[in-house]
Amino acid sequence: MQQKLNDELSQVFENAAVALILVNKEGRIKLINKAGEDLLGQGLVDVYGKLAGEAFRCVNTFINKYTVCGEAEDCTHCPLRNSFEATYNSGFNQYKVQSDLEIKDKDKTYTLHLLISTAILNIASSKYVLVTIEDITKERELHNELKEREKQLEELLATKNKFFSIISHDLKNPFATIAGFAKLLLEDYSSFTDEERESFLQMIINSSENTYKLLENLLLWSKVQVGKMNSNLENVYISDIIYEAISQLRAMA
Amino acid sequence: MQQKLNDELSQVFENAAVALILVNKEGRIKLINKAGEDLLGQGLVDVYGKLAGEAFRCVNTFINKYTVCGEAEDCTHCPLRNSFEATYNSGFNQYKVQSDLEIKDKDKTYTLHLLISTAILNIASSKYVLVTIEDITKERELHNELKEREKQLEELLATKNKFFSIISHDLKNPFATIAGFAKLLLEDYSSFTDEERESFLQMIINSSENTYKLLENLLLWSKVQVGKMNSNLENVYISDIIYEAISQLRAMA
């Protein structure tokens, strides 16, 4: 019966699909299950007696050849160490503390996003801490991508609103110009010379034609935005563009 | 020594921060740890010998008083059952299968988002399945919220682009009208009567003034969009708005 229970528990421990690591008062690994070995990429024989940072290959243990897990500057912020200490020293179990660990594996550096839970155990009058580690790296990366995408979309929307507001504002000017000249002509026609009349009509024409072009460009731009049209790269003379811009602005002035 | 190991394993099992449930060949619960009891909201005494659906209060066990876990229509798609069967019958361990369970608790119905892992165990010549359950409901809900937000933002952006394209298009018309009349006047002035000239100028004025108003409304709208202005609700006569719309369209026709 005793043997059966022992066999049962040891199989449950080994086959639990989440990393279970038992550490002693110094934080040194005493027991680790299969999922834990998979997470660390090392067997119990390799990690037995090691500190967490050594077993995980935390970047802080690679600063120089004397750096030890727990003694680098960053170690005071280490969520793994802090959870362990809170539980070992004060007996407070920690539940699913979000912990990001920077790992150095050969030449690569990457981040593991973990949920760390720690529980105090009393085994044969000695205190131990059981660390349960859930690896949520994939979920966290997906989450971060979604957050990044949200930020991009919000920025795009803000730019678009701002742009829209500027455009609406700028388009009002030519209409004021046009209505102004047309009213002058209508109300006070006889007081102008032929040349003046011609120049007024020409202003109206220029103003409306230039703004029409501006609108055509805007329409093109918005079609590109909604993906209805591919952009077509070509060489241009910058002086032509500047000249055109000046002449449009002059007409609106 | 044997006693110490047994004590150690049983404490590790009890204190693992993830639900561990051992079930027999029928899928009936034989052993459950503290995290498992917390997830189910019931103790081992309550759930011992029960099927998973009964212990979880799956909605499918409440269809009528005769429905049993595994025998409802939906049960063929049950990820928990399928993982259990794949592991028990074929010996293939399942790792972190996303499983959504509809739970009925008193009057409430809600969804648990779980990651289910199953492993085959041989204890005293009998086959058992160890089920490791990670509850990712909060993360999944947050994820779904982000996805929903992304969809909303994309729709908003598409609407805005579409709207912008329509506006640019519609604004082109008045300019064509204005330039057209102004050119007629300029090029062929002497051939028109005073009345015709007046009416041309009036068309130019109306067209530009109405479009100016349209732009002012757009500007207001875009200010509301960027949150610079609060909307101010007031009573209006719908006939006035229709009349204004007609007169604007007439001027552009």
Question: What attributes characterize this protein structure?
Answer:
alpha+beta; Helix Hairpins; homodimer; 253 residues; 8 helices; rod-shaped; Beta-Lactamase
Which helices and strands appear, and what pairs or packs with what?
Two copies of one chain form a homodimer.
Chain A lengths: L1 H14 L3 E5 L5 E4 L1 H7 L3 H4 L4 H5 L22 H12 L3 E12 L2 E16 L2 E10 L1 H51 L6 H32 L12 H15 L1
Antiparallel strand pairs in A: 1-2, 1-5, 3-4, 4-5
Helix pairs in contact in A: 6-7
Q: Cα distance, first to last residue of chain A?
A: 98 Å
What is the CA-based Rg of chain A, rounded? 36 Å
Largest β sheet strand count, sense and barrel closure of chain A? 5 strands, antiparallel
Which pair of protein chains has the largest interface, and what are the residue counts? Answer: A-B, 79 and 79 residues
What is the CATH superfamily of the largest domain in chain A?
Answer: PAS domain
Low-pLDDT residue intervals, each spanning 5 or more residues of chain A: none
Query: What is the CATH architecture term of the largest domain in chain A?
Result: 2-Layer Sandwich
The CATH class label of the largest domain in chain A is Alpha Beta
Share in β-strands of chain A: 15-25%
Number of β-strand runs of chain A: 5
Structural class of chain A: alpha+beta
